[in-house]
Amino acid sequence: xxxxxDLAIVEERTVGPDLGADSIRAGLIAMGxxxxxxxxxMIVTYGRFGIYATIALGINVCMILGIMAALNTTLxxxxxxxxxxxxxxxxxxxxxxxxxxxxxxxxxxxVVTAVENGYREASRAIYDANVTNFIAGxxxxxxxxxxxxxxxxxxxxxxxxxxxxxxxxxxMWVAGWLKxxxxxxxxx
Length: 188
What we know:
The chain is an all-alpha fold. It contains 5 helices and no strands.
């Protein structure tokens, strides 16, 4: 039942669509600046492998937006948050792979062996993390409402695209480069 209390209006505000548009614009600006800083850091830290990761990140963004357009979804503020989270997951996957390759080289492994082991070992952690995030995304979608569902949709789409671009696409590029150049050492 209702509580026997009178309602006293202390303050009343009207919020128009401009507030939402301003929030989305600010979110996009923050995402753009953050992305540029991450790209710079990846290239400076990992060299050629950072360039591969950056290109894969760009393809990841295009894939997410393309899938969202094909599904006729709307990018909302929570969706932008999911978008940023998946970009972070894609960057994290590339960092895991590159650091694992570094570790393999420090152990004295040959270049090709280091790359193979690096991708294989890092892939386990990447798949585990993404399966966990996928389960969380599905639960958010099933039990959440409007904005939460928007976040979940972008998160789930981004999980699939980030695994594809970070693990499979960059691995293909690195393998092609190794086959063509046959380097004796890696500067990673």
